Structure formats: C-alpha cells, structure tokens
Inverse folding.
C-alpha cells in the first residue's frame, strides 16, 4: 500500500458515494447510464469472487464487499426504486460491442488459463471500457449535471492514481502487472476528453455542456 | 487449483 494506491481507492469510494447520494437525495437517476452500472456490477462480481478463495487483508475484504454491495444497490435504485426517472431512451450504447471483444481478449490474453484468472482478466478489461455507455449518454444528451460530473471525475481519477501506484510499485518492489497497467491506461485515456471539460467548465461553475 | 495468482489490488 502506498499513498497513490490509497488515494486511488478513496477516489473510487468517493465516486460511488457521490453517485448513491445523488440518486438518493434527488430521488432520481436521470443522466446516469444503467448500462454502465450493470457493467460495473459485472466487473466487481467477476473480479472479487476471490473473496472466497484468498485472503489479502481486512482492508481488501471490506473494500471488495463494499464495491460489490454498492454496485448492486445502484442497480436496485435505478431499475426498481427510481425506475421512472431512468433515462433509458438516451442510454442506448450497445454493450455487446464491449462484452464480446472483452470476453475474447480475456480468453486469449491472460496470465494463466484458469477459471479465476480468466474472470479476473475479464473484469480488468471490462472495467476499462465500462464507462463508455455513460460517456456516450453524456455526449448524446450534450450535457451532464454537475453532480454527475463530480462522480465521473472521481471515478476517472481513481485509475489515474492507480497508474502512479504502479509506477511506484515498479521502482520500489519491482512489481508490475502488464494486463492491469495497459487496461488501466486505456481506462484513464477514455476520460481525457471529459477531464478537459471538467477543468475548463465544471470547476468554473458552468454546467458541463458539449458544443452543439 | 482454482487460483495460483494472488491479486492484492482492487
């Protein structure tokens, strides 16, 4: 554990809390992509099955349980409790275009051809692109509420901070995991355009609005 | 063996 890793995890935690609070306080999930949330739930389920096969630390276990539980709570709020507020007509990204390549890639490019390892690899690749339906939704409607922007910023920062963590680990422990690093870089790059808009608009008090 | 890799990150 180093400061980048901890900051990354806290950023991830913050993103989820922002999202849940936004939905709960406004009693609405308008502007949030249910498809991205389903992909995140699938990501954490596939990755954290190792909760039952190996113990890392109490911190690790608590965070994993939190990520799995909150991802399903988000889905419950979006698809059941506040279903009437879900913008499904703007949430039209075809997730099979992500799931199919990610599945094939996980079967081909992995550290070890075992059940758990392929699920882990699948989750790493899937997480990298899981935000695309959300970004697609923002570009389709041309705008995002400030709170949604803060959520996306925290979520994007998390993998960026992990990249610094990997650089740190490479120099201090000679540890590196190419699959996680490459997927993490791809994941972060997908947010670049959003980061730019966040700094130039949202932080100056303007709404995130794309040029028509 | 189900898993020989231990992933210590989240």
């Amino acid at each position: 554990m180093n400061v980048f890793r901890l900051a990354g995890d806290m950023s991830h935690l913050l993103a989820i809390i922002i999202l849940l609070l936004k939905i709960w306080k406004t009693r609405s999930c308008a502007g949030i992509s249910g498809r991205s949330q389903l992909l995140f739930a699938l990501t954490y389920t596939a990755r954290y099955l190792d909760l039952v096969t190996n113990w890392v630390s109490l911190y690790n276990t608590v965070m994993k349980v939190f990520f799995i539980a909150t991802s399903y709570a988000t889905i419950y709020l979006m698809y059941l409790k506040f279903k009437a507020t879900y913008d499904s007509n703007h949430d039209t990204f075809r997730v099979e275009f992500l799931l199919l390549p990610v599945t094939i890639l996980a079967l081909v490019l992995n550290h070890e051809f075992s059940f758990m390892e392929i699920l882990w690899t699948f989750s790493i690749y899937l997480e990298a692109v899981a935000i695309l339906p959300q970004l697609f939704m923002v570009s389709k409607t041309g705008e995002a509420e400030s709170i949604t922007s803060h959520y996306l910023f925290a979520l994007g920062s998390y993998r960026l901070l992990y990249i610094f963590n990997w650089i740190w680990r490479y120099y201090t422990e000679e540890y590196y995991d190419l699959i996680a690093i490459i997927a993490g870089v791809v994941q972060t790059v997908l947010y670049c355009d959003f980061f730019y808009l966040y700094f130039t608009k949202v932080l100056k008090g303007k709404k995130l609005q794309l040029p028509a | 063996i189900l898993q020989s890799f231990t992933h210590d990150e989240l």
Chain B has no helices and no strands. Chain B has a mean pLDDT of 74. The interface with chain A takes residues 1-10 of chain B (CB under 8 Å).
